[in-house]
Amino acid sequence: MEVETHMSSKTAEKISILVVDDNAAYLQVVAELLKKCNYQAVAVKYPIDALPKLQIKGDSCDLIVFDVHKSDMNGFKLQEMIAKAFEIPVLSMSADQKEGAILKGLKGVSVDDQRDKGLCTVLQEKKGKRAVPGKSAMKQRKRGKDNSGDLVLPTKSQIIWTESLHHAFLVAIHDIGFSKAVPKKIHEHMNVPGLTRENVSSHWQKYRNYLHRVTDASSIIQVPNKNLASRANQSTIASGMLVKHRQVHQENFGVQSSVPSSLIHTSTGYLTGNLQHLKNKGKEVEVVLDPVRNFSVFHKVSAMQGLQGIGDLSASSMNQGNDQPHQDMETEDNLQ
DNA sequence: AAGCGTATCT
DNA sequence: GAGATACGCT
After folding, report:
1. How many CB atoms sit inside 10 A of residue A125's CB?
2. CA-to-C1' distance for A156 and B10, Å?
3. Which of A107, A209, A259, A278, CA to CA, is 20 to 30 A from A319?
4. Does domain A158-213 have CATH number 1.10.10.60?
5. For the modification 4-aspartylphosphate, which residues carry it (predicted)?
6. From the Cβ of A154, is strand B under 7 Å away?
7. Would you give the DSSP letter of residue A59?
8. Confidence of residue A9 (pLDDT cuts 50, 70, 90)
9. What percent of chain A is helix, strand and coil (3-state, nearest 5)?
10. Tell me, in Å, how far CA of A280 is from C1' of C6?
11. By the 8 A CB rule, do A259 and A241 touch?
């Protein structure tokens, strides 16, 4: 797995990119974006037009970015041909998960890997550069001198904690053991090229903050529900979140309703990534057990669509905040 | 002095 | 909001 990065482009040579997208608007947007980032962009609308461009440009094209449609076999063919004829990395864009799946089947390549392999990482490798400076800018600064101006600046980059990267992070913590986990160990365990210990430290901090938020919210009322209690010998429900959620919901109806409607805390559940379906006041809820710590974290009303609730363990939901000092909760919550 | 945790910055 | 950076402490 590679890290995905955002970076400001300060590369010496111009990297040339061929963009293929039959949506003219998108095509232009992407091409313009790339130009703004100081890449040389060549835009073509159809895959069929791509090949001549490649041949003309020879190996000066460093990357092909193109939109994939499941119906568009030309696109796949093109990809295959390019892979065979030229050694040019191809970055596929697709709005649809299913298209991604098709791609995966066709190429025998993990779509995740492709996605995780950020554009810039690919390009940097192509140009024989490091995606991320080995020494952090911070340490270099500490060393005293401001070398801006004369020397090559380490390219500023920002890693993106994709779901799969975050998952690797969680696995590392799990394997190490939560109490023994420290950035260095997590970093070593993850073993992801381009990922620095500082990256991990930062993420680790956010993750712990997230866990605290989540657990602090469990300032606690006893679960009256026997079904629930029988599964966990010390179950509690935090209504703080619920109250908060309601307030939010009332103030801002319809927005951000993916906030968990309440929180369950149990000392017994340790079921990696498991879901339990429980009954709570007639409403079915899903309980997501935190793979890292020995208690469950969230449950959600199952009516909330899709897998959103599971994302409570995911990178995407990790940072959404609730940093208000929590109020003493309403004990006559409807969970009573 | 490496590396951790927290605060602060972007 | 998400990630990087600064910094004090061990």
Report:
1. 16
2. 12
3. A278
4. yes
5. 67
6. no
7. G
8. very low
9. 45, 15, 40
10. 47
11. yes
Cα separation of A260 and A326, whole Å? Answer: 15
The answer, yes or no, to whether residue A170 has pLDDT greater than 60, is yes
Share of chain A above pLDDT 90, in %: 13
Q: What is the DSSP letter of A268?
A: S
* pTM confidence score: 0.40
At A191 the three-state DSSP class reads: coil
Q: Which residue has the tokens 């101006």?
A: A149
Closest CA to A169 of A160, A124, A82: A160
| A295 vs A223: CA distance, rounded Å | 15
Hunting for tokens 């998108």 — which residue is that? A26
Chain centroid to CA A222: 35
Structure tokens at A30: 């992407």
**Three-state SS for A265?**
strand
Which chain B positions come under 7 Å from a protein C-beta? 3-7
User: Rounded CA gap, A145 and A137, in Å?
Assistant: 12
Looking at the DSSP assignment, which residues form a beta bridge with residue A288?
Answer: A275, A298
Question: Lowest-pLDDT range, A42-51, A138-147, A314-323?
Answer: A138-147
The answer to whether A315 CB is within 7 Å of strand C is yes
Task: State which residue has its Cα closest to the C1' atom of B3.
Answer: A184
- Secondary structure class of A81 (helix, strand, coil): helix
User: Where do the domains of chain A lie?
Assistant: 4-126, 158-213, 214-318
Residue A156 approaches strand B within 7 Å at CB: no
Among the four given CATH numbers 3.20.20.10, 3.60.20.10, 2.60.40.10, 3.40.50.2300, the one describing domain A4-126? 3.40.50.2300
Residue ranges in chain A assigned as alpha helix (H) = 24-36, 47-57, 73-85, 97-107, 111-116, 119-126, 137-142, 163-176, 183-190, 197-216, 226-231, 240-251, 315-318
